[in-house]
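Friendly challenge for the regulars: who can give me the structure tokens for this chain first? No prize, just bragging rights.
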Amino acid sequence: MKTLTKFTLLTLITCSLLGCYNKEKIREHIQKEYDRARSITKTKGDFCYFLGSVKLPYTDEPVLESDSQWTVWNKEDLTRTLPLFAELGLLSQTPVEGQSGIYRYDLTDLGREYWHQSIDNRGNSGRKPFYNSSFCYGPKKIVKVKDITEKTYEKGRFTGRKETQVNVKIDYQVLDTPDWVLNNQDKLNALYTVKVKLPGKNYPETVTFIKGDDGELYHEALAYLLIKP
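First reply, four minutes later:
Bragging rights claimed.
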């Protein structure tokens, strides 16, 4: 069973016959969970553009015949992501003397403000860790809960057994979208799979809770969206 976060019925108004919930309490809870996740990860927002596995400063590395398929894919991603964020002002890009087309990248002051890196030690296996690197923006503001529905499955995707899912449809807005995002929407949208989130606009999302055998609600930890090229 996946690790789920408990949302106790103390924060709910349940109607045993009608199955109704206090939408405002649920909205407040979802907001607090996103805010808590950011405080733990130290990310600037809830939307993170993934660069690849890269430890800065970094110098371009050619693809080698001995590279694994994953390493080839990662190097190919970096040839697209690093120049883009250098153009956007979050990375410096310095030509390497005597090596045509090879550049050295490092964070600028602007880049440090939005930089996030999670280090995957690969189970402490002794192999080189992954330095999963991103630029993050846009904390979510949960505007409202629009609808709540329940559905019971004989084999649920969370527990692998019979479970009742409580699907909460919300609207959210994105706060503090920075200029490097707003002024480069076309370039970011061309490379990444999720479009730029604009300020002042409502976006839909569904947060799924699981109703436990104890009658309480549980959910997976809410976290930032990792947007891959």
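The chain has five helices and twelve strands. Residues 6-18 have pLDDT under 50 and may be disordered. Your move, everyone else.
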